[in-house]
Amino acid sequence: MVGITAIENWVYLLINVVWVLIFVLYLFGFGNYLQVYWWKADIKNKLAILNDMANTARNKTIEFMNKNKAKDASRTLDRLIDFFAIDPVNIEPTDIINRLRHIVNLRDTKFKQTFEISMPESNEVARSIASTAAEISSALFLIYKYVQHILLSSDKTKNWYMIMYLSLMMPQIMQIASIYRKALDDFLEGVPVGDGAGPIVALKLSNYKNDWREIDEDTVATETEYNGRKIILVKAKGPGSTVGRPGEATAKIIKEALAKGEKVSLLITVDAALKFEGEETGSVAEGVGAAIGDPGPEKIMFERIATEYNIPLRAVIIKMGMEEAIMAMDKKILDGTDKAVERVKQIMEEESKPGETVVIAGIGNTSGVGQ
Known about the structure:
Elements: H1 2-27, H2 30-67, H3 73-81, H4 96-118, H5 124-157, H6 160-189, H7 197-205, E1 213-216, E2 219-226, E3 229-236, H8 246-259, E4 264-274, E5 284-288, H9 297-308, E6 313-320, H10 322-326, H11 331-351, E7 357-362
Parallel strand pairs: 3-7, 4-6, 4-7
Antiparallel strand pairs: 1-2, 2-3, 5-6
């Protein structure tokens, strides 16, 4: 009995010593080092997943290019993965839009020419899909490299706060990367994506006419009629993966109509827009201004042409989440395009008169959306 009591006393003493040691270690920052160790381990695990996503995307893109008889697909893709565009100087704002437009167009042209050279036996649709796949692969590698850079530089400078911040941001980063990775499969299949809601609205308003004409690079237009009004519809050229140049095309269309003596009384842009969490996918809202997710050159063309000729500029949006915008279009978004069509018709009836001309631009990616 005495022996058992002695053992118990030693156990209690040992436990107290351990607690004191733990307290002292935490007092001198051991707890922080332990926490940082777990943060770093978690980031490294997720970094390995990001690397796998990026390499899988690269391999799938190369596989698609090879199926379409590409020449040296691996080398072509590796050149484009690290391709970059430098923003123009913004300290001096004079002519910044034209300079930005020049840079953006140069980048788009470079991608287009690269795939024309690499895939000479493929059609335009296959080349545009390969170009989009290359951009997705590039985005995934950029995410991987960025996370790796923050981790290594923070570890090098012993910046534990940056490691903590990166660890807290990793769930959101992983979500974005996962969306891009899943979206790649949909683009490679050539199916309509959520961002194609705008072009689908334009297609429905045209009653699926087949006499679309090319107005600008990768951008088409057609004419129809609604309750005595002449309707001119603009969208990117499908079914390849492109957003076209809707701003420039719309400006040309309006100037052509005015030169014929037509009264352009209304300009409406229709586009997909990110919803707030809790909002219903496919819900529709309207407003004023140009509904277009663009760095600036295309959007400002809508604003300038509308201002120059005093044309009301109206916007209709179909709401969706980020993942829904770049992944295969679901029924809620498709139903949302029907609501948008009805909203556009309502705006035309309220804000234009028979005999006048209304221009409607369906903004968005035309993957899987033809004419």
